[in-house]
Amino acid sequence: GYFTDRNIIGLYIEALLNTWKKSVLDMCCRLIESLEPTRQELLSHQSTLFALLSSDKTSVVNFVMKLIKEIAGEKDFDFQAFADNFALCFATQKIAKSQLIGLDILAKHYKKQPPVNIEYREQLAVLFTVPDVKLQEKVASLLTTYFGGEGLAEVVAPYQDYLKGKAQDLLASLSLPES
Questions:
Q1: pLDDT tens string 88-118
Q2: Which residue has the higher pLDDT, 4 or 88?
Q3: Could you give the 3-state DSSP secondary structure of residue 163?
Q4: With 50 as the cut, is the pLDDT of residue 1 above it?
Q5: Hey, is 147 helix, strand or coil?
Q6: What's the angle, vertex CA 123, arms to CA 119 and CA 125, rounded to 5?
Q7: Residue 173 and residue 90: Cα distance in Å, rounded?
């Protein structure tokens, strides 16, 4: 820890927005990690961290999600900005673990403050295309707990063929209205 200027952390976090080769971006991630950013430092760069959730480099998404998890419980955490940006990685393949972390952050927040934006369930349903049983179960549980009620069956209907295991059971009770 010879660096006295902690601003370098912000510069490295912003550097992850570049379209550099994976190896270079991974090196930036390692440098950030070695500097052991404080929660306060991470909070001051949270909008950049959120923007990185839409990166096409899965290693970057996985890395920033770990950092976001560290600050998600802080009172200055911008939940709405997180939720909006988190939706941008719903269709990203091979990051089920990070998507699960994100869903946990949503669940903890919704437990304290139920969602007001019901449309968000349409974005959440996209996660049913990820063939991870645990992830699907978590999505199904969030949808039935916080986004239930009218119209949920229609939201889930297009993903019926993707559903596995417990997710299927949780959503089985939803019936489409007779047309």
A1: 999 898 999 999 999 999 999 999 999 988 9
A2: 88
A3: coil
A4: no
A5: coil
A6: 110
A7: 25
